[in-house]
Structures are given as structure tokens and as C-alpha cells.
Amino acid sequence: MMTYQTTSEHFAAQIPARGMSITSAPFMNAHTGLAQLTSLFKSIGNAIVRASEASSRIKRVEALRAKSDVELADMGIERDDIVHHVFKDLYYV
């Protein structure tokens, strides 16, 4: 007499039901997903702020370069020091 194994007896591993996870902890839960999304938007916002600040500083440099040497001297700035004057709060030389 011959006996046959059923499919579930043949394989030791069980296939999870639809919507179930194979692991006990899902790869990404709602909390970590939200934290990553928040981090992404913060990074984008910071980049926009930095670009805006850089743009306004460049405009300030251009405005000072357009002035005459006499006007710059009245402001206490030498032509060679314009960039340092505009960006002095960002670095120390």
C-alpha cells in the first residue's frame, strides 16, 4: 500500500496569508516611515533656506562691487574685502 504526502506535509515552511508578514517585525512601520519623511522635508527646507541666503549675499556682493572706491571708503570697506565683509559671519579668517 502506498501513502502520499499532502503539499503542507511536503514543505516545512508555511506561506503567510495575504497581508501577513513573514518576519515578526515589518521592515518599516508607520513611525519610522513618518520620521524618514519628516527628515526628507526638513532637508529640502534647509536647502531652500541656504540657497535663498546665498542668493541674497551674492546680490549684496554685487551691489557693493557696483559702488565706487570713494563710496566703499566712506563705508569703511576696501574693494578687496567686499566678499569677506558680506560673508564674515559664516567663517573666520
Structural topology:
Blueprint: H1 7-10, H2 30-65, H3 69-75, H4 82-87
Task: Briefly summarize what is shown.
This protein is an all-alpha fold and 93 residues long. 57% of the residues lie in helices and 0% in strands.
Describe the structure.
It is built from 4 helices and no strands. By secondary structure, the protein is an all-alpha fold. The protein has a domain at 35-93. The longest helix is centred in the middle third of the chain and has 36 residues, at 30-65. The protein is rod-shaped and about 105 Å long. The mean pLDDT is 80.
What key attributes describe this structure?
mainly alpha, about 90 residues
Q: List the helices and strands in order.
A: HHHH
Helix segment tally:
4
How many β strands by DSSP? 0
Q: Tell me the major beta sheet.
A: none
Choose one word for the global shape. rod-shaped
Helical content (DSSP H or I, runs of 4+): 55-70%
Could you name the ranges where pLDDT drops below 50 across 5 or more consecutive residues?
none
Mean pLDDT: 80
How much β-strand is present in the residues? under 5%
Calculate Rg over CA atoms.
Answer: 32 Å
The quaternary state of the protein chains shown equals: single chain
| End-to-end C-alpha gap | 93 Å
